[in-house]
């Protein structure tokens, strides 16, 4: 299937559906190659996924806040960059066909961190480099601004073709925009009907910053039962697709890039195949949004966002 794309401010095409190599493939140790992860990424590539989203690791500044339900293994990392790079290499698909994202573990020394990431990824550049979260700055505007200067240096040196942020709220964006000579291309945020981020998304639209959504299936994977369940089921039957496809389409049809993941080949095929078969009407998008506002639920970085948890 020919995947829909959005154009970044720098001119590069961004596929609207990405395969995420994050939370499903977390490792508790960074050493060694995990073949199951490599094979899972290769399978996604074989099915046609070309937008691959990765990260250096989860920042342990707020270990209990990374997700709603804490575990004893609070210092688990993604640490999947070696697997992502090896999977691309073994796939024999030319590097130029991929759009690869990775994220800085913290706002400190983002350039040095990217040099290390590129070695793990076996690449000379990434297509998109993000500051993973703003919380490691401790609320310091100066730290975020210096981090953004480092991101711009990464772009100038060709280490990253485009740069952006993740999990940023409006005040965080305002801080870096004060010094930016290049605006963030994207802000990757948790977004779904129970966490719609409307004010933030409108602000980013005015600034020309593309929204990327992670955890898009939260309403059915973590927050069910809920007010959209019946409508999603009705729409799934109407279009002969899965409930997951309805939620993914709700995001894509609003001009948002969506990041999803699965270890199941059937689901990955379903996402690619079903999303090309239908689009939601404006009325259906609005109805999902209206019902979604009846419930608030954040799955990730609950403590990090604090009082702004549901913004």
Task: Tell me what the structure shows.
This is NADP-dependent oxidoreductase domain-containing protein. InterPro entries: AKR (IPR020471), AKR3C2/3 (IPR044494), Aldo/ket_reductase_CS (IPR018170), NAD(P)_OxRdtase_dom_sf (IPR036812), NADP_OxRdtase_dom (IPR023210). It holds the Pfam family Aldo_ket_red. The protein is of the alpha/beta class. The protein has a single domain, classed as NADP-dependent oxidoreductase domain (TIM Barrel). The strands form two sheets. The chain has an eight-stranded parallel β-barrel, surrounded by four helices. A two-stranded antiparallel sheet has the order 1-2. β4, α2 and β5 form a beta-alpha-beta unit. α1 crosses α2 and α1 runs parallel beside α10. The longest helix is centred in the middle third of the chain and has 16 residues. The chain is globular and about 50 Å long. It starts with a strand and ends in a 6-residue tail after the last helix. About 6% of the residues have low confidence.
Give the termini distance in whole angstroms.
Answer: 35 Å
Cα radius of gyration in angstroms: 18 Å
Q: How many structural units, i.e. domains?
A: 1
CATH-defined superfamily = NADP-dependent oxidoreductase domain
So what's the overall shape? globular
